[in-house]
Amino acid sequence: MSTNIQPVRGIFDAIQRDEFGPNDDMTPEQAARLRELADKTGEPMDGNLTKLQAQKRIAALEEQVKE
Predict the structure, then answer these.
(1) pLDDT for the residue numbered 11
(2) Domain segments of the chain: what residues?
(3) C-beta separation of 51 from 25 below 8 A
(4) pTM for the whole structure
(5) The three-state (H, E, C) secondary structure of the chain, written as one string
């Protein structure tokens, strides 16, 4: 019997596949990435984001870091 189970490659993939609700608290990994990006950009760190909010905030801060 063969199964085609794909491993979760990251938090963003899991969000896109609705493996958890977008209103769940952000993960420790997201919080750590946000802290790192907030430190680099001088932006405030909001520790009360949902997973979906954290995903969007990480993307926005990563864009700032690229500039």
Answers:
(1) 54
(2) 11-66
(3) yes
(4) 0.67
(5) CCCCCCCCCCHHHHHHCCCCCCCCECCHHHHHHHHHHHHHHCCCCCCCCEHHHHHHHHHHHHHHHHC
Query: Residue 33, Cβ neighbours under 10 Å: how many?
Result: 19
Helix, strand, coil % (nearest 5) of the chain? 55, 5, 45
pLDDT in tens, 4-57: 444 445 555 555 555 567 789 999 999 999 999 999 999 999 999 999 999 999
- Write the DSSP symbol of residue 48: T
Give 35-41's long-range contacts (Cβ < 8 A, gap of 24+): 37/61, 37/62, 37/64, 37/65, 40/65, 41/65
